[in-house]
Amino acid sequence: MRILITNDDGYSAPGIRAIYEALEGLGERWLVAPADQRSGVSHAFTICNPLRVDTIDWVEGNRGYAVHGMPVDAVKLAMRSLMPSFPDLVVSGINSGENTGVDLLYSGTVAAAMEGALYGIPSIALSLTTHDQENSDFSIAQEFGRKMCEEVISRGLPPGVVINVNVPTLSREKILGVKVTSQAESRYDEEVEFRPDENGGQSYWLSYKKVLTGTASGTDIEAIRNGYISVSPIQAKFTNHDLLSIMKMWKLKK
User: Fold this and answer.
1) pTM, two decimal places
2) Is residue 9 within 8 Å of residue 41, measured between CB atoms?
């Protein structure tokens, strides 16, 4: 059993160290992750530039690499070059901040897991709903992350499917349980602040607030807001099959 561990917060982030430790004894752990913070890059990858790779000294067995690129670059390099064979499982996280609703379109954490799923490898994205990793307690996310890995190893997943896990930042006694959820319909509301820079140029700072655009019932957002761990099966297929059948009747011929 070979397990690829990656993330989008960078190889030195506390979250990736936490899940690396949690998966001890479950299989041969390979840690291949971005060298730097790469949150919000979605499924971007490097085409026109070389990728530099450094070794990570704290990973056992010389199986740790920091890739100067995107999360998807790290997964591609791991599978195609750095590992002796494709992994049996891909685990991306533990991410800093939730990945629910519209976040799934932008998340490097989810994209890294999805890259594994595109190759038919069972993959898990794991997030903790706080951006303060340095002062976070990862124990619940570690325990649940390992349990989820064990379930996926035992049961398998359909090709192309990622299990997206969000753990609320609550004390153990306040977490009410686990809910299997769907992705909430949401979008970002942006606020733009103009700040002139030192050289007289124009600089714009964007801040984001996630807002629901549909019902929260049964969704990932509802679950974590109510104190539950959210587990969602997601995939990369974008086709709207309802409209597909209707469009076949459109007058689109030349």
Assistant:
1) 0.95
2) no
